[in-house]
């Protein structure tokens, strides 16, 4: 099977998974937050039954549940996500989400790339030096980082900074008082600053998010390191590696030309599965440090029962996760073409 056919096959498998995620989320949200509660939250304090029925009909809750679901799925794929019930009443959900999503995405991508570069390198070093002093030191540090949630790490760093005589970094927020916002081109603060040349705004933003980013990098790095190290140790015990050593190949050549390619295959898949944890971490980080991203919006919408905002966010996260898995499958099939036969 060639690469194009393999990509199409994997993409087709993702569609029913996406619809299943939407269906389960829709049903759970309806069970947790009845339409009656949403309607009453939107009405004034002194509402009448006529006002209730009018709002109930306007929101489409009087239609059969299956009709509501089919209409909702159709609107999701067409980009017509309706209007917020509570968070920003009668405001377009698509506009609300798209203002926040790029900010979280750019931070997730930056921290993920840094974590990949460092985590894979550390995994190679420790896998090739199994149970040696260097391996033990790195394992202790990374396992501590993996066992602690990102927002706890960030709060720990903030508390350490708070007890210092000199305040090195802010404890919350994403900009200094009076600092303007860059022109909204992509709604990603870092990218907009670069595109418009507002370097002083970019510097202030990076200064404020330094601690949350470090915490997120340490958390992701630990997961990537663990999988890379395990794969490297397994590959280095294969017969063809012993054959390469017996032929007199150098340690560096064996690791980079023989072991690394085969070790990265399983690691790619496991690393892609860890990407949802990145978004889960950003929910807690953005709430704790008052960063206006998609994580904070998801928390507010879930807490206040605005499922019109919650479901599109889950829909987008599901798409991102499925895309990450698809990219991982493609990368794995390139690293090991035998996988396309399955």
Topology:
Blueprint: H1 3-32, H2 35-42, H3 49-58, H4 65-78, H5 93-128, H6 133-147, H7 150-162, H8 189-196, H9 199-208, H10 210-236, H11 239-246, H12 251-273, H13 275-288, H14 294-304, H15 307-335
Helix pairs in contact: 1-15, 5-6, 5-10, 6-10, 7-10, 7-13, 8-9, 10-12, 12-15, 13-14, 14-15
- What is the CATH first-level class name of one domain? Mainly Alpha
| Structure summary, number of beta strands | 0
CATH homology-level superfamily of one domain: MetI-like
Class from secondary-structure proportions: mainly alpha
Which fold does the CATH topology of one domain refer to?
A: MetI-like fold
Number of helices: 15
**Average of the residue pLDDT scores:** 78
Low-confidence stretches: none
Supply the CATH architecture of one domain.
Answer: Orthogonal Bundle
What series of H and E elements makes up the topology? HHHHHHHHHHHHHHH
The residue fraction in helices comes out at over 70%
Query: What share of the residues does DSSP label as strand, in percent?
Result: under 5%
Which outline best applies?
globular
The gyration radius over C-alpha positions equals 24 Å
- Span of the ends, CA to CA: 9 Å
Largest sheet: none
């Amino acid at each position: 099977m060639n690469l194009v056919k393999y990509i199409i096959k994997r993409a087709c498998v993702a569609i029913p998974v996406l619809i299943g995620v939407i269906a389960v989320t829709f049903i759970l949200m309806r069970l947790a937050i009845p339409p009656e509660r949403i309607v009453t939250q939107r009405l004034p304090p002194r509402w009448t039954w006529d006002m209730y029925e009018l709002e109930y009909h306007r929101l489409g809750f009087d239609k059969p549940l299956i009709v509501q679901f089919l209409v909702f799925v159709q609107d999701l794929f067409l980009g017509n996500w309706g209007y917020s019930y509570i968070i920003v009443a009668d405001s377009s959900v698509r506009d609300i989400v798209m203002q926040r999503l790029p900010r979280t995405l750019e931070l997730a991508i930056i921290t993920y790339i840094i974590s990949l570069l460092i985590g894979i390198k550390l995994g190679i070093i420790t896998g090739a030096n199994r149970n040696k002093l260097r391996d033990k030191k790195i394992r202790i540090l990374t396992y501590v980082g993996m066992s602690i949630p990102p927002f706890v790490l960030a709060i720990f760093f903030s508390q350490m900074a708070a007890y210092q005589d000199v305040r090195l970094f802010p404890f919350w927020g994403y900009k200094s008082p009076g600092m303007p916002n860059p022109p909204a081109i992509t709604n990603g603060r870092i990218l907009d600053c670069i595109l418009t040349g507002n370097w002083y705004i970019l510097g202030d933003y990076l200064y404020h998010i330094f601690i949350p980013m470090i915490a997120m990098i340490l958390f992701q790095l630990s997961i990537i390191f663990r999988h890379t190290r395990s794969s490297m140790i397994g590959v280095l015990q294969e017969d063809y590696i012993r054959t390469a050593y017996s032929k007199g190949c150098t340690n560096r050549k064996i690791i980079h030309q023989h072991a690394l390619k085969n070790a990265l295959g399983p690691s790619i898949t496991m690393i892609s599965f860890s990407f949802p944890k990145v978004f889960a971490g950003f929910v807690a980080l953005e709430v704790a440090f008052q960063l206006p991203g998609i994580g904070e919006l998801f928390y507010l919408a879930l807490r206040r029962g605005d499922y019109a905002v919650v479901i599109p966010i889950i829909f987008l996260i599901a798409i991102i996760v499925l895309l990450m898995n698809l990219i991982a499958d493609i990368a794995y099939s390139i690293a090991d073409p035998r996988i396309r036969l399955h």
